[in-house]
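Listing S7. Sequence submitted for prediction.
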Amino acid sequence: MDPTPSPANYSQLDRVLLDEVRIRRRVAEMGRQITAEYEGQALTVVTILQGGAVFMADLIREIHLPMKLESISVASYHGGTESSGTVTFLQSELPDIDGRDVILLDDILDSGRTLAAIRHRFETEKKPASVRVCVFLEKNIPRAAEVVADYRGFLIEDLFVVGYGLDYQGEHRNLPVVGTLRPELIEK
């Protein structure tokens, strides 16, 4: 069976930045690194939904340790191509992470507001042993909030990208690649 999707799957992309093979290779490397660093620790991976779901599914299969898996749902984009600047928590209760080493996993680090807000709540409302940040993509831009990725898949330019969990107006998350949309498809 040919793993390459048909061109129709890519018809709305302007260009592909990261292909499937490169993504798989990097995610496997990250899994090996996390496995080595967390051996013998009480690990919990907390995924930020919905964008982090695809990355999480692939990454946790590459982490060869006992772990708990949690998720948190927040919103900051509200349908556009830029963060609104406001992080809205969509669930009232935080995951049970007391005493555990936490990897906070997200699809992309851009403004830093979302990761900073979640990390702050974790560290002030819960008692984790540690909190580290793992992102699939990191934009090479100044941050509105100070956040450093402890684990990063790829550093990218300041582009609006879709695929591999990242969306535009709820679509394109299922693309197995990361790319930019054709400009005429993005509402101004």
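Caption to Listing S7: primary sequence and predicted structure tokens for the chain studied. Helices lie at 20-38, 53-60, 113-125. The domain at 19-159 is CATH 3.40.50.2020 (Rossmann fold).
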